[in-house]
Fold:
Amino acid sequence: MTQPEPRRKALTIDPLKVSPPLGAALALLGVERGMPLFHGSQGCTAFALVLLVRHFREAIPLQTTALGEIETILGGLDNLESAIRTLATKSKPAVLGVCPTALTDTRSEDMAADLRLLAQRLGDDLGETLLVHAPAPDFIGGLQEGWGAAVKGIVDAAAKPRPRRAGHITVLAGAHLTVGDLDLLRDTIEAFSLTCTVLPDLSGSLDGHVPEAWSPVSLGGTTRAELDDLGAAAAVLAIGEHMRPAAELLSERTGLPVTVLETLTGLKGSDRLVAFLSEVSGRAAPTVVRRDRSRLLDALIDSHFAAVGQRVAVAAEPDLLRAMVTLATDLGCTVPVAVTTTKAPGLETLPVNRLIVGDLDDLETTAREAGGCDLVIGPSPAIRAAKALHAPLVRVGFPQVDRVGSQHDCFTGYRGTRQMAFAIANAIADSHAEHHLRPPHTSEAPHDSPAPVAAG
Amino acid sequence: MLTDRLAPVFDEPACATNRAKTDAQKKAGCKTKGPTPGAAAGGCAFDGAKISLQPIVDAAHIVHGPIACEGNNWDNRHSASSGSDLYRRGLTTDLTELDVIHGGEKKLWKAIRQAIEKFDPPAVFVYQTCVPALTGDDIRAVCAAATERHGRPVIPVEVPGFVGSKNLGNRLAGETLLDHVIGTGEPETTTPTDICLIAEFNIVGDLWQVEPLFKALGIRLLSRLTGDARYREVTWAHRAKASMVVCSQAMVNVGRKMQERWGIPYFEGSFNGVRATSEALRTFARLLVEQGADADLIDRAETLIADKEAEVRRRFAPFRDILAGKKVLLYTGGNKSWSIVSTLQDMGMEVIGTSVRKATDHGKDRARDLLGEEQKLFGAIPNAEMFRMLKEGEADIMLSGGRSQFVALNARRPWLDTNQERHHAYAGYEGFLVLAERIALTLTAPIWQQVNGPAPWEEGYAP
Structure:
């Protein structure tokens, strides 16, 4: 048991965390014709927009209520109304998600009441647009918390009791699943002759396809019809601990049974998914799935030679952290340091030496205190810490600003775990070849070169 | 307080937008035509200030605010440094609910101390954002006390996002430099050819493409505001003999006030393209000679310009046929709205339109002169319209910033980044050739033919 160490520094250096409203926006972009709206100053939207663009390299629909000084002091209801009216009448989104920001939270605006009032006042102007409240305060957590809040908001606005539909699963996908992961998950579900609705479904919107026409709203994702039918399923499968509140609400509204799988990364997590699908479908695992499991076993065996005994430092949001620590330790690595963004339930059971709620500078300094590490797993900004530690970086999580195609990287299920096991083993092997195939303690060894740290 | 400091910025006489206003409009400030909720694009004042000051590479830049202000934003511009990379670190107080309730001043005080202990910077910039401005954190008081305690400048940058646009933030950053930095230091020596560049941010090393030109003329780059600057050189910018405002929309107030306070003549110019670069060198030579530099500087400048222009003509030859007559849609901001127009024309390309939504009046005039027709000056173009223009072949290529790139890319048309996220420097004579090469490479890239060809299930497909 390793209790998370709370942050003690007043100064955050190189944040691991991005803002919860950014996560909420991303979830809303996983809905077809979705449009997130930040209730705050223009910058709140601009920064999130630029970062999402840098990661996905796709157009990102995201709007702002553009609060100025006066509205900040007197209240921004008029701006909110005018923004919703403009969007609902011009862009006609299927789902318009309103995300408060730190600015409106600090004013303690009662957004839920405001939105009820506005829905009445807007009347016909709102048309077919479903108005969703995504309360993800900037002050608590990061991307995954905002994502979870937005999904809960969508469930709250859309879920109704529906007749059960045998052979169909409603999947609530966590923020730590990539487009590639969602594709794999859908394939696996369909391999059991089941069908599914995935919410949110970035594999339809931010999968990097080339559209025929320009769209001011998201280009795909969970459809409005599917949202109305979230309750028409045999079961709800939620992936990631941060999806539990949304899943419980969905169960409450629809009476469907809920299964929360903490992670689909690693052999055990993938096995649990397959056991669940067998149970729901009443079918034994099909050949293709069995074959994939066998390949994973071989991959784990092949990968463990490079990985066993290696020290891995991980920086990720709680559910992704859980996935990565699980796989790294499954392969025989140790985890001297894990850094995460918030104190989420269940993290204390992770087999790590130190678990810090902190930033990328904590990753670097703590790993150094622990005598260094052989591999860093984290988002692209962790490259600085990795270089300073002379360790390779295996990239997971958000953002990945220096890579193209990161949305198609896979980390879950038998296939995704296999790819990730190879990535870990190969990164360690490369680094080993670069640093260690020379006599010990030679002065010209590259890993003795000065670290690229900031000069004062 | 902050309102008092905003008033002079709205009153900036060197800003053409302000000059055209009535007194009542001036009083209302730059937000009379505020952004439309639900249909707005662009950053906030904090964004603008950070962009303007962060290129001071050896300073610590601490953002006092919740995670959205820095967590989503750090290290996202390609301002380059020849030394320290402290400016690229993401430093923030990451305010939480408790800080909002109890106030964030103590946390900021500690954060400043921790930054100084860890990085030992010559100065610290502290950026005020919306939330602590709303809860009333007095960052001026904290910075004043920290300056005394730590024996080095800790400078408050009061730019909560809600006060206005990114451009307002650029200017507030300029005011901050005038209030707290410029004039607080002295260079070891001065020369008759000391110059200052204002609002040049050394994006991917733009500055390094023009520095050798000044060196060749014996002109000393005394202070760079702020690309690749060390804090110290900003403190003695007031000893320059002449200055140039490079992105005039961003910091024209600094040029104007340096002239007012210290008698330093300034001009608005650009290093985008051959013509603009030659003009900048010529103007500097003239101003410096007027200020007492040796008169032969003017002739030497002309010789250098002639040499360089001849060299550019020679090295441009391989690109001439590729670029000739190609139609460009330009969607950018600031001085680029016009300076890139002349550059592209010099390359033999046809600019079908430029957006002047973020240009000064001076900039609009220049764009109009270059294009000859009012219709080619656009305001904001809706994305759907840009998409159509590209799809229907009205333009062969779009040059713009990162956000509008997908309009072109989704239309499967060539696009080139001309804003801060680009990976190539386009300044000066060297930059002209780099830009020509990049455009040529993009236009002739084999992918365009592939991605626009028919799929196997479409008409016209041939294996």
User: Anything to note?
Assistant: Chain B has three domains: 2-20+42-180, 194-311, 324-418. Chain B has a mean pLDDT of 91.
